[in-house]
Write a structure and sequence with these properties.
The protein is mainly α. It is built from 17 helices and four strands. It has a four-stranded mixed β-sheet. The chain is elongated and about 85 Å long.
C-alpha cells in the first residue's frame, strides 16, 4: 500500500473516534483548491476532480454559487450540511484515486456511502468501487439492507438476485407494520429508496403466496363437494374410499396439518415462500407413497402429488427478481426491454402481478 493510502487509512480509522473540538483537515490532494467542511472534519480536495465526477459538485463550484467563490488566494472553504463526514471522506478519496481496496468497509458504512454517492450524482465514477464492496458484504446476516447500495451503485445483476431472495426467503413474523420493518431496512435508509420499491417486493411476495393458497384450495375443494353430495364422510373409520381423488386429497389435508400448514391462511401469512414449498414437499412425499397403487378415476386427471409438485415448481423456478433497468426507466417498449442487462420476461418496472399464475 502506498504512503497516501496509509495516511488515508489512518484518517478513516481516527475519524469516527475523534473527540477534538478543533477542525481536523485531511489532505486528499495537497494542491487542492477547495476545503470541504463536514461538521468538525475538513478535507482538502481538487475542484476539477470532483467536478468531472459529479454534476452537483460542478454546479457547487461554479461562479454562480456563493460557495464557489474564493475568499482569498487560499483554497475555498465550503460547508457541506447534513453529510456524513466519514462517507464524504471515503467518496472523495476514491474519486482522487487515493483509496486502496479493502476486505470490506462494512454494511452500515456501505449504506451511508451509497447515500452521498446518490446525493452528489457520481455513480458512474463510484460504481466499480461500490460494486466491489457490495460483493464483499453479500454474506451479511441482513442481506435485505444491500437493496439500497445495489440500487444506488447500479448493480443490476445483484439487485435482481437480491430482490428474488427477499421475495422467496424472508418471512412475515406477523408483527411488522411496514414492509421496510419486515425486511429489516433502517428508517434513515428507507427514505432514500425510491417510493414504491419496497412495497413492490412485498406485494410480489404476497401475490405468489395468494396464488399458492388458491391452487391448494382448488385441489382440496372436491372434498367439500363430495361431502355435500353424501358420497363420503371424512374421518369415519369404516368408510371405504373408492375414488383415488378423494383419498389423495384427504391425505393432503392430514399432511398439511402435520406440517403446520392447516389452516392455510395463517400458514401462508406466517411463512416465507421457500419454507412453504419445503413443507409442501414433505407433504408430497407422504402422498406419493399412499397413492402409488391406486388407479385414477374419471374425476382425477392427475394425482395430487403431481399437482402439489407443480405448485412448488411454479413458485420457485418461474419466479423472477426485479429488473433495475426497468425500475429506473419505466414505460419501456418490448423492444427496449430486450436491452435490459438482466434478461427477463414478466416484470416491467415495479410489478403488481406475478408470473406464477401464467400458463397454469
Amino acid at each position: 500500500m502506498c504512503e497516501n493510502c496509509d495516511n488515508l487509512s489512518s484518517a478513516l480509522a481516527s475519524l469516527s473516534v475523534s473527540t477534538h473540538n478543533m477542525a481536523k483537515t485531511n489532505v486528499i490532494d495537497p494542491e487542492g483548491d477547495v476545503i470541504l467542511i463536514c461538521g468538525k472534519t475538513e478535507f482538502q480536495v481538487s475542484s476539477k476532480v470532483l467536478s468531472l465526477a459529479s454534476p452537483v459538485f460542478k454546479a457547487l463550484f461554479s461562479p454562480s454559487f456563493a460557495e464557489g467563490q474564493p475568499t482569498s488566494s487560499k483554497a475555498s472553504r465550503i460547508q457541506l450540511h447534513d453529510d456524513d463526514a466519514e462517507s464524504m471522506l471515503f467518496m472523495c478519496a476514491v474519486l482522487h484515486h487515493k483509496c486502496a481496496f479493502s476486505k470490506g468497509i462494512g454494511l452500515e458504512r456501505l449504506e451511508r456511502l451509497a447515500v452521498v454517492t446518490d446525493k452528489y450524482d457520481c455513480v458512474c465514477a463510484m460504481c466499480y468501487w461500490g460494486r466491489c464492496e457490495i460483493y464483499n458484504t453479500k454474506h451479511t446476516k441482513e442481506p435485505s439492507r444491500l437493496l439500497w447500495p445495489a440500487y444506488a451503485f447500479d448493480e443490476a445483476q445483484f439487485f435482481n438476485s437480491l430482490t428474488k431472495f427477499m421475495m422467496l426467503n424472508l418471512p412475515n413474523d406477523g408483527k411488522a407494520q411496514t414492509a421496510s420493518r419486515k425486511y429489516g431496512i433502517p428508517e434513515e435508509i428507507e427514505s432514500h429508496i425510491p417510493e414504491g420499491l419496497i412495497e413492490a417486493i412485498f406485494l410480489a411476495e404476497q401475490d405468489v403466496k395468494r396464488e399458492m393458497q388458491i391452487q391448494i384450495e382448488q385441489i382440496i375443494s372436491p372434498i367439500a363437494e363430495k361431502s355435500t353430495a353424501g358420497d363420503l364422510i371424512l374421518g369415519s373409520d369404516d368408510i371405504i374410499f373408492s375414488h383415488c381423488d378423494c383419498i389423495s386429497i384427504s391425505s393432503l389435508i392430514n399432511g398439511l396439518s402435520r406440517q403446520g400448514l392447516w389452516p392455510l391462511t395463517s400458514a401462508v401469512h406466517r411463512l416465507s415462500i421457500s419454507m412453504l414449498c419445503k413443507k409442501l414437499e414433505a407433504c408430497d412425499v407422504g402422498l406419493a407413497s399412499r397413492i402409488t397403487k391406486l388407479k385414477k378415476c374419471s374425476r382425477c386427471p392427475e394425482n395430487v402429488a403431481a399437482k402439489v409438485a407443480k405448485i412448488r415448481e411454479a413458485a420457485l423456478t418461474r419466479f423472477e427478481g426485479l429488473c433495475l433497468d426497468c425500475i429506473k426507466n419505466p414505460g419501456k417498449s418490448p423492444e427496449q426491454r430486450l436491452q435490459c442487462r438482466v434478461p427477463h420476461q414478466h416484470f416491467r418496472g415495479l410489478p403488481r402481478q406475478l408470473p406464477v399464475s401464467e400458463g397454469q
